[in-house]
Design goal:
- This protein is an alpha+beta fold.
- It is built from three helices and ten strands.
- Strands 2, 3, 4, 5, 6, 7, 8 and 9 form an eight-stranded mixed beta sheet that branches. The chain has a two-stranded antiparallel ribbon with strand order 1-10.
- The longest helix has 24 residues.
- It is globular, with a radius of gyration of 21 Å.
Length: 191
């Protein structure tokens, strides 16, 4: 939403008009908040805990409805028992399981042209030069996508658990389908 302060000829609008637009926007925000509260989808802003792994470890699960993002890869890893320092690789194997965490850039970059479907249920992986990826192996990824949020902050956004699809993949384009939107953390932490 934007509040216009200039007319078509770039003249500043009357203050009374701008104030009316501000009031309309505030009413819109209040109505949206009420709708989210009624549908139980409201997520209050919590600056101090927004990117804190402990918040989700204490909850015991990750759910895409919670709009989870971490500032660093290691914060996502902590949810799965990682106790080390800085970590910058795109893949981390969860000990004692067949699953891994994957931190893909879901946009074209130097080596990869990965994409996420509009419904967020399918990831396609291919190289920027369209070279061979090889045969499709069985992969089960818990995905935290490299993502720029609304404020321009780079975060690793939780997207769910994705499994490789041999039916939809080729040797040049691997496809992963989302299977879970909720991850119970105790199922992955081995003590």
């Amino acid at each position: 939403k934007r509040i216009k302060i200039y007319d078509a000829e770039f003249n500043v609008l009357e203050l009374s008009y701008i104030n009316k637009e501000i009031d309309l926007l505030i009413d819109f925000i209040r109505k949206r908040k009420k709708e989210f509260l009624i549908s139980n989808d409201f997520i209050p802003w919590d600056f101090y805990n927004k990117y804190n792994a402990k918040k989700y470890i204490d909850k015991g699960y990750l759910n895409i409805k919670d709009n989870i993002g971490f500032l660093y890869v290691r914060n996502a890893l902590k949810c799965f028992g990682y106790n080390g320092g800085h970590y910058q690789r795109a893949i981390w194997k969860i000990k004692g399981t067949e699953k891994s965490l994957w931190f893909p850039k879901l946009y074209e970059n130097k080596n990869w042209n990965n994409s996420l479907s509009d419904d967020m249920k399918k990831i396609e992986m291919k190289k920027t030069d369209n070279s061979l990826l090889g045969l499709v192996d069985k992969h089960e990824w818990i995905v935290f996508a490299h993502y720029k949020d609304f404020l321009g902050q780079i975060v690793y956004k939780f997207l769910g658990e994705f499994h490789s699809s041999k039916e939809l993949s080729t040797e040049y384009n691997h496809v992963f389908i989302r299977k879970k939107t909720n991850i119970i953390l105790k199922d992955y932490i081995r003590i």
